[in-house]
Specification:
Two copies of one chain form a homodimer.
Chain A lengths: L1 H9 L6 H20 L3 E2 L5 E3 H4 L21 E3 L4 H10 L5 E10 L13 E10 L6 H17 L4 E7 H10 L7 H8 L7 H11 L4 H11 L2 E2 L1 H9 L7 H19 L6 E4 L12 E7 L1 H14 L12 E7 L16 E6 L1 H14 L11 E5 L5 H13 L4 E3 L7 H11 L3 E5 L1 H6 L1 E6 L5 E5 L4 H6 L2
Chain lengths: 464, 464
């Protein structure tokens, strides 16, 4: 339809009941984890003053949605949840908090529906703000990513870890001029999508880096390991010349020692090629990716969803990411007072895509309601009795439905149960009413029992 | 602060953790009720095509937020959840569904913070779409309002019921010209805020109605009752001349018979003064109001919050409203196919205001986390042991916290428990570690017990 086309063009989507049921399940898993770790939650408005968002996202600022100037302040839709969080902390002079925030954010990006990329999408953020001893909250963030990905059962995953200070130190010792750190960093960030050859070309040809510097970077960014690699690099002749790099490497060591206590080192890898896009990171950064097994299903989805569009059938890649940003809150404080922060954002939309695809592939039917019993009748003229019993069930806290027809056919009542997965049907009939009983049928097996109809009926149903 | 001022000016607010905890409790009550009645849920984007919203809200259209034209389609923030719902049904050719939707909507209205009125606010909608036998889904909507207000325990309430057809019939038999129905209807709608004298003045002086017609309307709109009033008006010489009014009155009778079966007639009153603002209603309409006892607390809040602003200390009034809108979906269908709908919107922001005020007045402390146990140590150098035990608790599904310090003072660890209401603290010490036990202290009573530290510790904690 025309409306559907426009919907496509504007890059948003409706969630239908089945998608919502899956979404609720995923949210519950994530929220349970955040709560298990003692997080509070806050909410901020969907729009912020335009000036709040200005100068926080670098090049990506062009993707911010502005509201029309209808008089009053200039407003923009939030681009992420991190900047509003920092604004909230500064505005309320909060110096420590552990909070999660699940809400929609907005980006005027090219939508790629088959990859689960929309212009309106959910973010699930967990952040720890406060002046604490090094790497303890950082380790908890990684533990949380581990727990969530494990519980969601999306297949195998890896959590890559690096540190902005190590990257900057590396650039310095490889001879990258100071003013090119950021742009070279964003080229390094493309290593998950581009070959080293192409990344090198971009560095040398487009960004004017010397071939020698690029090759030295190339050596470092191919390194992966654990605590041992951090130790090795602390001894590295070149790297050890950078104080910044050494600080980062020591922290990586400390981080791994805490990750060992948390028993999550089997999935965490220290990866010098990890750069991450956002400007505001100041220390440790991390990103979780699904390894092939977990990704396969979405590739399939993209192929099914958009025939012929092979470009779309790339891996979902990153499903969580985050890091330390110690300077952001200070940008909103009139006196520049800093509040150190570390956090993680779960890439929930990609996870939804995978879960939806899983639900489609499996034979299992996704229920979109939780109705336990349908109140039906076999004969005509029993509407009043049906309504009365249904109300009794509701009053007893039982999830119950009744058809909104005076004289529905028994078959259509039973069909509704089967379609929406309602396990029980209470069937009223003249004879049963005379006898003061109600027939209770298990929809799946058609087993039937009779129960006396009184106020105890309802509590009784609870136990079934 | 400047930021805070701007925040005030733009008419939005942040929710802090305490407000969120209260909000979560209210949402859970409401969602449980919607689920008990077998509702599915959907979600729609925060912005719609501007044309989707055009011509749906009458005069209030000026309150719609538009997005800036940054290329592409013209977009507006949603003004309510009903129009997006109707658009969703038409677009997906859905002819029956029972769904709830809880989400934020946007209105460029004059914010009145002390009355809990913001430019961004939540709506909680429950709607039943489909061609069914008369008044059965309508009665269920009223039952839902009753259950929610009862469970939220906000004090006594009344649910006023009327029907657009009765209003229109009444206007006709009182001699209101056809083209003045709508404007006279919106004057009648002011009866909850203005005296009859003032309403009459507006009708006669501003809207040019004859004094005689106004007086006749005045007689009708003072009428309140139940099924008996509907019966009485069906016999009324004047009213019975209008076919429309008779259809509405018969349905009110039928509605009350179903409400009797649902045992909710003690709170429902047929009130001919109820008009409701929105254009799209076609049949039964209703509105729930808190009666004085329930309202008092918010009056107090307004007085405390804004000293001297007596204007603000009005009653919170309506806390739920809705009705039947059989024509809206057809407006979005290319062939104009109609889908009859009836629904209710819970005035959640007003309910939040009351609940927040209640929480403030009561001595009871609102917990913002659900942490069950804090892992603490009495001596220095036990960080590793604390982290290890905490991870064990997390892995066992227990909500646990640990301080992010190498050597926190026992006192500050205990203080944190008291401040955030954590009931248990597990205290590690050298001796206990040697003995393989952990001291578990009940924070409130300071009772202590020792437990062997092994993987059974965690499940054991669950039962406390």
């Amino acid at each position: 339809t025309g409306a559907q086309d426009s919907k496509g063009k504007i890059g948003t989507r409706d969630y239908n009941p089945k998608q919502m049921a899956i979404r609720e399940k995923v949210f519950n898993t994530i929220i349970s984890c955040f709560k298990r770790h003692g997080a509070e939650t806050i909410d901020t408005p969907v729009f912020e003053l335009k000036e709040t968002l200005t100068g926080k996202y670098g090049e990506d600022s062009k993707l911010i949605y502005d509201l029309k100037d209808q008089g009053g302040e200039l407003l923009s839709l939030r681009y992420d949840l991190t900047v509003p969080f920092a604004r909230y902390l500064a505005m309320n002079k909060i110096t420590n908090i552990k909070r999660y925030h699940i809400a929609k954010v907005y980006r005027r990006d090219n939508p790629a529906m088959t990859r689960g990329r929309y212009r309106e999408f959910y973010q699930c953020d967990f952040d720890i703000a406060g002046q604490y001893d090094a790497m303890i909250p950082d380790a908890e963030c990684l533990k949380i990513v581990y727990e969530i990905l494990h519980e969601l059962d999306l297949g195998d995953f890896r959590i890559k870890v690096n540190d902005r200070r190590i990257l900057d130190g590396m650039f310095a010792v490889c001879g990258v001029p100071d003013d090119k750190f950021r742009t070279i960093c964003s080229t390094v960030d493309k290593l998950d999508k581009m070959s080293w050859e192409d990344v090198k070309k971009e560095m040398v040809n487009e960004k004017g880096l010397s071939e020698q510097a690029a090759d030295q970077i190339g050596e470092y960014v191919s390194m992966q390991g654990g605590m041992d690699l951090a130790e090795h690099l602390l001894q590295d002749q070149k790297m050890s010349q950078s104080k910044q790099a050494c600080a980062g490497l020591s922290d990586i060591k400390l981080l791994f020692s805490y990750l060992q206590l948390f028993q999550v080192t089997d999935k965490v890898v220290f990866d010098l090629s990890l750069a991450r896009g956002l400007d505001y990171y100041t220390g440790v950064i991390y990103e979780a990716v699904l390894t092939q097994a977990g990704v396969a299903s979405v590739t399939t989805e993209a192929q099914n969803g958009a025939p012929g569009s092979t470009e779309e059938s790339v891996s979902v890649g990153s499903v969580a990411g985050g890091g330390r940003y110690d300077g952001l809150v200070g940008m909103f404080d009139p006196k520049g007072r800093k509040v150190p922060c570390v956090g993680v954002s779960i890439g929930i939309e990609r996870i939804f895509s995978i879960m939806e695809q899983k639900a489609e592939v499996s034979a299992e039917k996704v229920r979109t309601t939780e109705v336990q019993v349908m109140v039906a009748s076999a004969q005509k003229n029993l509407l009043e009795e049906r309504l009365k019993l249904t109300a009794e069930l509701w009053n007893a806290g039982i999830k119950a439905e009744v058809m909104y027809k005076k004289n529905p056919k028994l078959l259509s009542q039973l069909q509704h149960c089967e379609e929406s997965g309602i396990p029980l049907v209470a069937i009223l009939g003249e004879q049963e009413l005379k006898d003061g009983v109600v027939k209770l049928r298990v929809v799946a097996t058609r087993e039937e029992v009779s129960h006396t109809v009184d106020i105890h009926t309802a509590p009784h149903l609870r136990t079934i």
